Amino acid sequence: MSPIIKGHSQAAGVTKPVAAERRRAIKNHASNAMNEARYIFGPVPSRRLGRSLGIDLVPPKTCMYDCIYCQLGRTTNKTVERKEWVPLEEVIGELKAKLATRPDYITLSGSGEPTLYSRIAELIDRIHSITDIPVAVLSNGSLLWKKEVRDEIAEADVVIPSLDAGGALMFEAVNRPHKSISFAQMLEGLVGFRQEYTGQYWLEVVLLGGYTALASEVNKLAACAKKIAPDRVQLNTVTRPPAEKYAVYVERNRLHEFANCFDPPAEVIADFRSENHYAACQTGCEDIMRMLVRRPCTVVDIASGLEMHLNEVVKYLEELMALKKIEHCRVQDKTFYRAT
Ligand code: SF4
């Protein structure tokens, strides 16, 4: 039985009018959350960046890739068009209102690929002018072969591109890129950026069972990583519901074995929750909806990210489920919740 169903039975003593009133109030809160936080979300727990305040620079789901493991589901707008997808002034306005949460990083990521945002250089500049909180860019790195894109993100404090394949065939199978992007060009961009960029450059490699979690494929990836020469290589795998159910996770001990194929050895990204010592953040129904409209989470993810008691999270989830604002699904042995 899921914790939600169990929670329903525990709430049996609530009278119908009161329960209906509570549901109405929470429904309004949830709607407000969706309306208020259009471009900023979190702080959310990040395995690499601590408490990360996310900025969503493209509408869901706008990307030049359609990765089979994507936690955001399938790409609905596969494009290489770069433009001001969301209004810069509104993003800055929302960001200023959230700076009091003092995140560890302000992270450009969200519902697709942030380098598709044509005013990204100006945004990074404006963030640096209003706060000393470092800026991270989570990118698939596929546009780094373009000089203007390299220049536009050069002032970020951390750039985290991804590389999920060591050759063209696997690149097509795993990342399903826009037809204008080739593996060779993408790799050239990742190598070229390292030669110019002076900030922290961390390469994320997502390994998938049946695809890249094979010694021959990992060796190709390691050879590419050697050429790119990032400050760190971080191995990851599927931990949230993927776009395609055949995108299968890799056991942690296998990841550790594969980490040794890299020179120097790669890091396996640690489980964030065991390292969570963060200060309390503002919590409640709105905060949960802000998390879940961006990515699926477990109860523990939410409790950890929002510094909320597990039982309190379960209570809110129960109400949001009843309102059909969220739904749940299973991945491996975990239950995830996501906005409907
Ligand atoms: S994982 Fe990243 S790069 Fe891949 S489809 Fe999703 S948003 Fe795009």
Into which percentage range does the β-strand content fall? 15-25%
Unique ligands: iron/sulfur cluster
Which architecture of the largest domain does the CATH hierarchy give at level 2?
Answer: Alpha-Beta Barrel
Number of strands: 12
Topology as a string of helices (H) and strands (E) = HHEEEEHEHEHEHHEHEHEHHHEE
CATH class of the largest domain: Alpha Beta
Mean pLDDT: 84
CATH topology of the largest domain: TIM Barrel
Give me the Rg, rounded. 20 Å
Main sheet: which strands, in order across?
A: 1-2-5-6-7-8-9-10
Q: How many strands, what sense, and barrel or not for the largest sheet?
A: 8 strands, mixed
Structural class: alpha/beta
Discrete helix count: 12
- CATH H-tier superfamily of the largest domain: Aldolase class I
Report the span from N to C terminus: 21 Å
